[in-house]
Amino acid sequence: MAVQTAASTTDSTTVDLGSAAALSCRECGHRVPLGPVFACEECFGPLEIAYDFSAYEPEDLRKRIEAGPANIWRYAPLLPVPADVADKPNINPGWTKLVKADNLARELGVTGGLYVKDDSGNPTHSFKDRVVAQALEAARVFGFTTLSCSSTGNLAGAVGAAAARAGFRSCVFIPHDLEQGKVVMAAIYGGELVGIEGNYDDVNRFCSELIGDPAGEGWGFVNVNLRPYYAEGSKTLAYEICEQLGWKLPDQLVIPIASGSQLTKIDKGLQELIKIGLVEDKPYKIFGAQAEGCSPVSVAYKAGHDVVRPQKPNTIAKSLAIGNPADGPYVLDIARRTGGAVEDVNDEQVVDAIKLLARTEGIFAETAGGVTVGVTKKLLENGVLDPSLTTVVLNTGDGLKTLDAVAGTGLTATIRPNLESFREAGLA
Amino acid sequence: MAVQTAASTTDSTTVDLGSAAALSCRECGHRVPLGPVFACEECFGPLEIAYDFSAYEPEDLRKRIEAGPANIWRYAPLLPVPADVADKPNINPGWTKLVKADNLARELGVTGGLYVKDDSGNPTHSFKDRVVAQALEAARVFGFTTLSCSSTGNLAGAVGAAAARAGFRSCVFIPHDLEQGKVVMAAIYGGELVGIEGNYDDVNRFCSELIGDPAGEGWGFVNVNLRPYYAEGSKTLAYEICEQLGWKLPDQLVIPIASGSQLTKIDKGLQELIKIGLVEDKPYKIFGAQAEGCSPVSVAYKAGHDVVRPQKPNTIAKSLAIGNPADGPYVLDIARRTGGAVEDVNDEQVVDAIKLLARTEGIFAETAGGVTVGVTKKLLENGVLDPSLTTVVLNTGDGLKTLDAVAGTGLTATIRPNLESFREAGLA
């Protein structure tokens, strides 16, 4: 079942994944039926979902979405899921807050409207719940009974939680020497949590081996053989942002880059809304954000390259620390095509940005959120972002998961329990 | 401004807090105008909000609520807030998931429908965001410029975040030797975080001193001089549960007890919905849940007492560790009046229940959630809870904040990065 390429070249399929019609190669356009495959049999390019949205009338679809549940399944007609998806047991992420960040806007000098899309509100407090929820539905349709992944943190928790809710077995692979907090968060859901004696690359390599082996039969690796479905979950960020803006495209978006998948799928989601007629067509710019200690896409962007040279990551923004991002070239293309850019900030700027966002908006972001806010600040200072335009910045995770990054933050005063001591400390 | 009792006895007031009409003493019924006061000038009983809901027609109100925002402000007509509350900067908590817990129901033998109201989805991941959001609106109306509280954790983070968003100064008092994680979470929002050399009782005593001193002028202590407003935030749990059940009362609710305020206000909220006609009147039972190491209300309930004898807390459920719960007698009254009960579980049962909920439903609860789930299990085993009735269990916080309680949870296996090692570990 878990094969890497598909034999058939027809679009005919017996699986019900809504308006998803086929898998299509991003490189050569070759189409294969929907299945648990991720690489093109012709050119080994990445497969992605091709849809048939031709039956949708924009006003009807808009009403149907607005009457839907307060989670990603309101967009079921635009996702590779069965029509009755909302009735099946899943973690039901999404419909997170789009916070109008007026205090932050004032500090940064943004006048056109600044918003933070805060995905720390998801069930396991990161955007990974969106992609895992999609992969889970695909796993169900394809008859997998075990949900798996390689991970260093957020993904492990999201897979463990979703599998538990949906009644799947889960088996998650992580480097054996991860921080205790991440291990607990991944283990609490009761699935198998296997430590691999090696680093994250070793974990990844082992998972690829397992997919090709009979032992991996019946296993859905959310970020490998279910990747085409998994990745579509990121489109829901685009849909929600536009709906929350009153069915309008923002002018500028600042999006973190790990593998680059999220950024490319947000662009795909925006393009779909335009094509279907749910939003008015107008230009928008997409900006990619990296940490300086893992900035292969930013470096390539600045050098004018089309290819991305891998880096060995060294940054506190560990959820973005992918040194060889699979979708890097597509990110470069989107940033250039839309008139955006790719920028990076150093770890000190990441920490400052986490504190800035918390102090101005009461949002405690993961290091990845520090990267996007920090890059937003830098791009404004450099005149690359236009402060007079509507700008949306993504926070994809929760500060509680990366406490170490801001461990220096603490008491502003220590006093004895009396008013005299209170006055002496200058607090009155 | 921050006086403890009010001089006037009329209901006339110039503040706009919606349908809130006056403050009324819970003990003697004495009414005073809305103001930053919390104790009755006649009998020193606790003051609570009295409303005028006479203008509401149920169908109109229901439609108005359903068309409202996806947060607690959809219930603005039933809360002590101005009509335009949703337009003001606040943390906007609520409308958290009511999870149909079919897996947990199966394990516990519940056939009548089991639901978990999961308040870990709030902005700072605990139900405290609900009460702080209310207190903030009262603080704004009464002209306070500093938001304050005494806290050992969840409340500190909620106050810090809400003050940041709303542009208030914040000054939060905690024991100086709290765990680093809680300190970081409280400090990150940039307000004053003052460590008191002493225990939580010393912190509380100092705060009471400060309220009576000119140095406390202009300070709104959310859980002291703003307590009548603050406490009303818990009513929104009752509203949401009923609306999410299709405007129906549940048959049984299991609610944690710290001060007891939350339980009493949920009962108040249910009663309001019945009186206004938003739900059909029928009996419901309220069950209180405590940890054995801090079980003053449970002990009093079982002994048939009307008064609660204080305890010195010693439990891992620190967010419930109030040894002298102010609303304990009211909780006893509600449990007995509705045909419910109060029960407690020990720390081992709390940890088991945290794991049970995670394993069955993918919800990682704080220790307080372990208490309610553990008590639910115990009450079912003892035949006190009826498994054939619709039951709602509250999870009021997030497991990420109490990682220490489940620190023993970890890897299920460690292997070398190859298939042979994988097979040897029996994972195939």
UniProtKB/TrEMBL annotation, chains A, B:
Gene Ontology MF term list: threonine synthase activity
InterPro entries per the UniProt record, alphabetical: Ser/Thr_Dehydratase, Thr_synthase-like, TrpB-like_PALP, TrpB-like_PALP_sf
Top-tier EC class: lyase
Pfam families in UniProt: PALP (PF00291)
Enzyme Commission number(s) from the entry: 4.2.3.1
Keyword Plastid among UniProt keywords: no
Keywords for the protein's UniProt record, in alphabetical order: Lyase, Pyridoxal phosphate
Every Tryptophan synthase beta chain-like PALP domain range: 93-397
Cofactor(s) annotated in UniProt: pyridoxal 5'-phosphate
Similarity section: Belongs to the threonine synthase family.
Protein's UniProt name: Threonine synthase
Organism: Streptomyces spinosisporus
